[in-house]
């Protein structure tokens, strides 16, 4: 169905939802679960080009130009959280 993986200290390495389950809020649930483990920090990630709109809904912004590594393009993104 879905998986998330956070690499310490704050890099969202994976957030995937199977295509058949996309659009059901699963990515938001996974993302909220990840956030519970880092209360006051920032997050970085390398988004697939197609997933950029999803991460923007979560508050991420582009942190650099689109990059390509190993023939795969990705968008570096970051989210700065405020301390509560």
Series of H and E elements = EEHEHEEE
Are there runs of 5+ residues with pLDDT below 50, and where?
none
Q: What composes the largest sheet?
A: 6 strands, mixed
CATH topology: Aminopeptidase
Looking at CATH, the homologous superfamily is Gcn5-related N-acetyltransferase (GNAT)
- As a percent range, the share of helical residues equals 10-25%
Distance between the termini: 32 Å
Task: Please work out how many helical segments DSSP would assign.
Answer: 2
Number of strands: 6
The appropriate CATH architecture is: 3-Layer(aba) Sandwich
Average pLDDT, to the nearest integer? 90
Instruction: Count the domains.
Output: 1
What would you say this structure looks like, in words?
19% of the residues lie in helices and 40% in strands. The protein is α+β, with helices and mostly antiparallel strands. It has one domain (2-80): 3-Layer(aba) Sandwich (Aminopeptidase), CATH 3.40.630.30. Strands 1, 2, 3, 4, 5 and 6 form a six-stranded mixed beta sheet that branches. A hairpin with a 3-residue loop joins strand 1 (2-7) and strand 2. The longest helix has 10 residues, at 26-35. The chain is globular and about 30 Å long. The mean pLDDT is 90.
Structure summarized in a few sentences:
19% of the residues lie in helices and 40% in strands.
Main features:
alpha+beta, 19% helix, Aminopeptidase, 6 strands, 40% strand, 84 residues
């Amino acid at each position: 169905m879905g998986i998330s993986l956070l690499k310490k200290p704050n890099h969202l390495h994976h957030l995937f939802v199977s295509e058949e389950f996309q659009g059901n809020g699963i990515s938001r649930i996974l993302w909220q679960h990840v956030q519970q483990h880092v209360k006051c920090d920032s997050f970085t990630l390398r988004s697939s080009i197609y997933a950029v709109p999803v991460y923007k809904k979560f508050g991420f912004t582009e942190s650099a130009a689109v990059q390509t590594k190993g023939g795969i393009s990705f968008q570096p993104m970051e989210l700065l959280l405020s301390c509560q």
